[in-house]
Amino acid sequence: MRNPMLRSSVSLAIAVSSIAVSSAHAQQARAVDMKAADARAAATVKQMTADEKVVLTHGIMPLPLGGPTPPMPADAIAGAGYIPGIERLGIPALKETDASLGVSYVMGIRRDFSTALPSGVAQAASWNPDLMYRGGAMIGSEARAKGFNVLLAGGVNLMRDPRNGRTFEYLAEDPLLSGMLVGAAIRGVQSNNIISTIKHFALNGQETGRKYVDVKISESAARESDLLAFKIGIEQGQPGSVMCAYNRVWGEQACASDWLLNKVLKQSWGYKGFVMSDWGAVPNIEAALKGLDQQSGEQLDPGVFFGDKLKDKAASDPTWKARLDDMNRRVLTAIYASGLDKNPAKPGGKIDFAANGMVAEEVAKQGIVLLKNNSALPLAKSAKSIAIIGGYADGAVLSGAGSSQVHGEGGPAVVRPVGGKGVWAGFIAQQYHRSSPMDAIQALAKDAKVTFRDGRYIADAVEKAKQSEVAIVFATQWQTEGLDVPDLSLPDGQDELIAAVAAANPNTIVVLETGGPVKMPWLDKVAGVVEAWYPGARGGPAIASVLFGDTNPSGRLPLTFPASEAQLPRPKLDGSDWVEPDFSGGPSSGSDKLTADYDIEGSDVGYRWFARQGAKPLFPFGYGLSYTTFDSTGLKVKGLTASFTVKNTGKREGAEVAQLYLVDRAGQAKRRLAGFQRVNLAAGASQTVNLTIDPRILADWKDGGWTMPAGEYTFALGKDAETLGTPVKVKLPAKRWKD
Ligand code: BGC
């Protein structure tokens, strides 16, 4: 179904400029001081009345959601959440908006626009914490300009299954990479004197039956994988709030899990901020005793638990009273730490969409991954004829859907409604941002005759491809929150289209706009493959810049591209026959019994699973090509520091992502990313890289702490998780420590 909203004439002024990313950003980013804020919060709690103590603990979703809509407070902004303030004590209301890719559009109600960053996985493919910081700072500034003081960003669930419908929103399958990147993004968001979340805590690995799925995983496996990503993210980013997840863990809802919230987050890690619930994830009032501090979007829950009911409990029971004080103290700690009261966000701030668009474009450029190149790329700007096929590439680039959906300036260029039943039916559609790859290609290949075919008719597309020097097929895989993809194929007959075009033109390039990995049965037949993900507000110019070599591709895969679903720990996604109950409150047609057994792979998520199985993926974690070549040599490991030299051995400037892997520990094969660094190098230039290895990456979680056995630890530099250099051994002593 094609939509008349497609405007092929969308034309943006294309100023392809490279933004120097300065690491100064990361350095300037002062971590928020949670300790000082905590002391101030404790003093405020002492002044609060019993009524005031149940103000910060719950709030509504300030949106007309159907059904009885609670009255909208005068100062609420249409968005994800609203928690009233307490004027007498100078405590501001919390005004919350989604999410990690920009300020979300919430069904268009606010009638404003925001700058869309590329998808989370695209951001992560940059392997660049400084750039993550800049992206976070940019979207945080837009949230602030709209009057929001909480950005529900920081999505960092590990990608245990690439079919997860939110793969596009998350970052990576590795805990070190995910944690470092999310921490930097959170620092960026919070540099605007607003609070960022980190979410969804934890083990929220699939959308199918997401409120019901019960995750089984051993504590050690969880601590070494998903929880480690959160821990590193919290250390690096100091988020004011942790959003707990929808799923169950060992039979408990994550938002009422004593183990996750009290034991791990607050006791073991000493987290001082507050836990907010995901929307509609609070089962009962007891969740408060299990560690939940704030009930969000309360009209979506079976009841308002954290208001008067909580006040009554606190009035009669000292345990509840102490808990309620702690809940307030934690919310206030986050408010004070980010300076929400001293530097209040006000609606009506100015947004420089041109400047912010350039940040989005830079993220897209650094996140695009060149997967295959038979020397066809970069394309010559002198090309005489270029056929562009599919993907609405004459006017737009794809985005992912759900709560993170952003509307860029002018609204979407294409909206394709999605049918089907369930929670998300009617709410979501496939939306394409208004950024034209075709216009950007034409701007760089000025003399070329650039033609477009939408790809519905294969013979017609083939005809155009035959008449052109180069054929570029834009292939899409749409993902959305709320639904997993059934398999890793490109939908809608696109494989057939690509194969036919490739048979007709040896210079066929495939540009993928996918949420995550897809299978490529036509891989051998095409001259080049570029993974552009969902490339955001200025995806068109970013793609063109990579295709023509103005940008030397430097993205690396933050997750494995499997050759087939059979290689995954769960060849069939748990609950593929699941029927999601709807919001209408009728009898649930979804079964309550759905289990995800994460002990199959344990902490060996992604490439670690592939290494353990000896399975060969289509493209490994860490993989990505460049238009130049690099050599990393001279690896030396001393204790927990590694050093080596990276050299650009080719003819043009480029960026390498140096990757250090643990490959063996005390005679046991292992594969763990132990460190990474992105290095920009002029042709012929070299640089020494020093990495400090986080001992948790080398350790196992055992009996309540981290344990490193004494012995020889073997490391290797990797072009990716599979292409490893000469191993280097270092003897390390046994070590044991608490988290
Ligand atoms: C999502 C969260 C989001 C919240 C508020 C939930 O459905 O899981 O990521 O922040 O809605 O919109």
Give a nutshell description of this structure:
The protein is α/β, with parallel strands linked by helices. 24% of the residues lie in helices and 20% in strands. 58% of the residues are buried.
Task: Please give the structural blueprint.
Layout: H1 24-28, H2 34-47, E1 81-83, E2 94-97, H3 120-124, H4 129-145, E3 150-151, H5 175-190, E4 195-201, E5 214-216, H6 219-224, H7 226-237, E6 241-244, E7 248-249, E8 252-253, H8 258-268, E9 274-276, H9 308-316, H10 318-337, H11 353-367, E10 369-373, E11 385-389, E12 397-398, E13 414-417, E14 429-433, H12 437-444, E15 449-453, H13 458-466, E16 470-477, H14 494-504, E17 508-514, E18 528-531, H15 539-547, E19 595-597, H16 607-613, E20 630-638, E21 641-648, E22 654-665, E23 668-681, E24 686-692, H17 695-698, E25 700-702, E26 705-708, E27 711-718, E28 728-732, E29 735-737
The structure holds beta-D-glucopyranose (BGC).
Q: Based on CA inertia axes, which overall geometry fits?
A: globular
Uncertain stretches: 1-29, 583-590
- Based on secondary structure, the structural category is alpha/beta
> How many runs of DSSP E, i.e. beta strands?
29
